[in-house]
Design a protein that fits this description.
The complex is a heterodimer of chains A (158) and B (219). By secondary structure, chain A is mainly α. Chain A has helices spanning 10-39, 46-83, 88-102, 108-139. Chain A folds into two domains: 7-84, no CATH class; 87-137, no CATH class. Chain A starts with 9 loop residues before the first helix and ends in a 19-residue tail after the last helix. Chain B folds into two domains: 2-55, no CATH class; 92-218, no CATH class. Chain B starts with a helix and ends with a helix. Chain A binds chain B through residues 1-3, 5-6, 12, 14-20, 22-23, 26, 51-52, 55, 58-60, 62-63, 66-67, 70, 105, 145-149, 152-153, 155-158, and chain B through 1, 24, 27-28, 31-32, 36-37, 41-43, 46, 59, 62-63, 67-68, 71-72, 74-75, 87, 93-94, 96-102, 104-105, 137, 145, 148-150, 152-153, 156, 191.
Chain lengths: 158, 219
């Protein structure tokens, strides 16, 4: 009953996370680079500038988001399978691996720093999520039912 | 209280006169329309046998019954006509995420392997191992993300349009997919002029039709 049915089971959820992160990146990149291209173009070519900036940059932003989300989901599933438990450390460990593997071409120091940064970021996110969870649980805390009446209620007007 | 419960007062008083020794529950049942001793309240819930059974109240109780329908109220599968796809879908967000993710990964893999072989061919002669590795990796990362990104954007647009047409028509069929593919291709090349728009539109329509054919074979 307490299982989370909104997320699919592990191997296939990677695909969904990939697509979701990619879609988020593309749509966000359209807004971001649309505004940027509009502002950085000379008067009279602003709409053209916005469109060409979106065409050039939005898919790249989407790809970056998608690869990050997909890698994170893959590592998350792998860590879950190895540790056989679900807690915030899964996300932090997966964040470490994700940050490290995305920076692996930049050398050992870059990989290490990037992994630590990413792990800390995920740790903060998990912490905030836990805080919200606690707050929601505190708001919906169970209430004792009102005490029963000592005798049967009398019929009205009887 | 007849104004509230809609009882017929003259008949009730007549019943009282004709059965003066009736039980109290019968009397109140007539005037209230229900029997107060049958009403569920806290004491009746608590006094029900088995209500405080610890094996039923445990947080992990009832796991052997599997998933209950109440848990799945928010996650019903899509009931739209003809919307059955290769994997079960809960609606347009699932279609969008899975479709985009699958096509993006496929494009990334195909482009990456193309770049891999291209990189193997373009290794400079007599170069050290690190340079060879770098050449191959550079070719992979040039080809893979390019094809993956474009395929992903196409699928994203296609899925958005397809779901919109489905929602407007209230059902899904192959014509929806083909039209959505054509519109997607036209939008994708919309800044290049009419002729490229036509080509891209036709190609995407054919691709969508191919996907529908594949789905009908596999399902």
């Amino acid at each position: 009953m307490s299982a989370d049915h909104t997320r699919d089971p592990c191997p296939v959820v990677i695909l969904s996370d990939f697509g979701g992160a990619f879609a988020m990146g593309v749509i966000g990149g359209c807004v971001w680079h649309g505004i940027k291209g509009f502002r950085n173009s000379p008067m009279g070519e602003r709409h053209l500038g916005a469109v060409s900036a979106i065409k050039a940059r939005a898919p790249v932003v989407g790809g970056n988001f998608g690869v990050w989300g997909g890698l994170f989901s893959t590592f998350d599933c792998a860590v879950k399978a190895v540790r056989k438990r679900e807690d915030p450390w899964n996300a932090i460990i997966a964040g470490l691996f994700t940050g490290g593997s995305l920076a692996v071409r930049g050398g050992w120091r870059h990989t290490r720093n990037s992994a630590i940064m990413c792990g800390c970021l995920l740790g903060v996110m998990e912490g905030v999520g836990l805080m919200f969870q606690r707050y929601a649980a505190w708001q919906a805390k169970p209430m004792a039912p009102p005490l029963p009446e000592p005798q049967q209620p009398q019929a009205l007007g009887a | 209280m007849s104004w509230l419960f809609g009882g017929r007062k003259s008949q009730t008083s007549g019943a009282e006169e004709s059965f003066p020794n009736d039980s109290k529950s019968q009397d109140s049942q007539n005037s209230l329309g229900f029997d107060p001793s049958q009403v569920t309240n806290v004491s009746s819930i608590i006094s029900t046998p088995g209500a405080l059974d610890t094996s039923r109240l445990h947080p992990l109780a009832g796991l052997e019954r599997g998933v209950e329908y109440l848990d799945l109220e928010e996650e019903q599968l899509s009931t739209m006509e003809g919307s059955k796809s290769l994997i079960p879908s809960r609606g347009w967000t699932d279609d969008l995420c899975y479709g985009t993710g699958a096509v993006y990964l496929t494009g990334l893999g195909l482009g990456g392997s193309y770049g891999f072989f291209e990189g193997l061919k373009n290794i400079p002669p007599n170069s050290p191992g690190k340079l060879q590795l770098n050449t191959v990796l550079n070719h992979i990362t040039r080809r893979g993300p390019f094809i993956g990104n474009n395929a992903g954007v196409l699928t994203l647009t296609y899925n958005l349009i397809n779901s919109s047409i489905d929602a407007l028509r209230g059902k899904h069929d192959s014509a929806n997919s083909v039209v959505a593919g054509a519109v997607t291709g036209a939008i994708f090349k919309s800044s290049k002029g009419l002729k490229p728009m036509g080509y891209a539109s036709g190609m995407m329509a054919v691709a969508a039709a191919g996907w529908c054919g594949l789905k009908s074979v596999l399902l």
